[in-house]
Specification:
Layout lengths: L1 H13 L6 E6 L5 E6 L21 H8 L2 E4 L5 E6 L8
Antiparallel strand pairs: 1-2, 2-4, 3-4
Helix pairs in contact: 1-2
Length: about 90
């Protein structure tokens, strides 16, 4: 799953090097949700694209392109996502 790979990679690169918590949920309505939490203290940002792109910086852009919904819990380093039929119906 590309979304989870990008979020875990971000946690490894930008986190504190401590625990990374990964959760994936599968719902009976063909939707998948997940979240990745690290112990870092940096904000979640979608970077402006440098020309040319060489050193990464595309992780959240990829998540944004592939997930039906995604976001983060304010004041934490937990990023969540949803894909599938029911993703657009939840709050």
């Amino acid at each position: 799953m590309t979304i989870m790979t990008e979020l875990v990679n971000n946690a490894v690169v930008h986190g504190s090097g401590r625990t990374i918590d990964v959760r994936i949920t599968l719902d009976g309505d063909s939707s998948v949700g997940g979240r990745v939490e690290d112990q870092g203290d940096g904000p979640q940002v979608i970077r402006e694209l440098p020309e040319p792109v060489r050193d990464g910086g595309l992780g959240l852009r990829i998540v944004d392109a592939l997930a039906d919904r995604w976001g983060f819990y304010p004041g934490t380093n937990t990023v969540w996502f949803e894909i599938g039929e029911a993703a657009g119906l939840r709050e």
